Amino acid sequence: MPTKELALKGRLVSFVTDDGVRLNGFVHGGRKGGDCVINVHGMTGNFYGIRQMLLAEMLARKGIAFFSINTRGHDAVSSYRTEGGRVKGKRVKAGTNFERFEECVPDIKAAIGAARRMGFRGITLCGHSTGCQKVIYYQYRSGDKRVKSLILLGPADDYNIAKADLGKDFARIAKLAEGLVARGKGDETHELIPSGFSAQRFDSTVNLDRIEARILNYDGELKEFSRIRIPILAMFGTREEFAVKRVGTCLRILEGRTRSSNYRWHVVKGADHSFKGHERELAGRMVDWVRSL
Q1: DSSP labels for 199-228?
Q2: Quick check: 156 and 182 in contact, CB under 8 A?
């Protein structure tokens, strides 16, 4: 599979959220009135990664559009200037390190609106990594009837990942971040908070009172996930480096919690969190899924 150079014919798309944030994406393939998979990246991701480009090419061959988007949390650090909302022209620090998880809702809503204006009708939201939490949260909050299914690629448990990574320091650093947020210093970074995250961004992933931390906590109730009734396809690779449980166990936990009308799962043998080198199998599963609905 050629990965050194890949050129796609498609459209760069710019769209604006209800609160005045301009975001970008790239759409490839598909036809008016047909199916469109909207791809939502994970932490520090963006719309133009090689995995997205390969999936776009493969899905387009089967007549399915692939619309890969930026959320305002794209890349590690970015920024935007508001074009509307209450404070027009305000410069806001963003990117994964400074994003507010809940703002994925207007981001995804705007992307769906853009896809519909381009003529696509069968919308599937596909999240990768923390993008899984975002598409789950979007559908939980909105109940958007334009969305016919979800695809979850590497739906990792960020809360327990952080807990495992930090070990005995977890509680202390989590309390530090929570304290900074309580004092109105949530946008500040601290040498003890990992990954360059702001206090509120880190708190969002490790404070179980917050939606992002608990939405895919496999030791928790998964109550938000269980409210979603549209079809869901979930996939992990056997070499998932961020798994805090066996991937099959995670997928079966989701199966036990879901009220979806159609939940399916698949494990990609030999694939890591990014599914590198296994894009063809991934695309095949996605095509079969979309066509089955």
Answers
A1: HHHHHHHH-TTSHHHHTT-TTS--HHHHT-
A2: no
The Cα–Cα gap between 164 and 275 comes to 23
Structure tokens at 238: 């056997």
Q: Residue 123: what residue type? A: I
Distant-in-sequence, close-in-space partners of 20: CB < 8 Å, separation ≥ 6: 82, 83, 84, 85, 88
pLDDT of 87 above 80: no
Q: Decide the pairing of beta strands 91-94 and 78-81.
A: antiparallel
- What's CA 194's distance to the chain center, in Å? 21
Three-state DSSP class for 38?
A: strand
Residue 241, token pair as written in the block: 């480096």
Please, are residues 262 and 231 in contact by the beta-carbon 8 Å criterion?
yes
- What is the rounded CA–CA span in Å between residue 116 and residue 36? 9
Please give the structure tokens belonging to residue 165.
């990574």
pLDDT tens track for 129-180 = 999 999 999 999 999 999 999 999 999 999 999 999 999 999 999 999 999 9
| Pairwise CA distance, residues 200 & 181, whole Å | 6
What pTM was computed for the model?
A: 0.96
Residue 162 structure tokens: 């952080």
Strand 65-69 versus strand 11-16 pairing type: unpaired
* Amino acid in the structure at residue 177: A
H/E run at residue 201: helix 199-206
Domains, the chain: 11-157+216-292 (3.40.50.1820), 158-213 (no CATH)
**Tokens at residue 9, please?**
């014919």
**224 with 259: CB under 8 angstroms?**
no
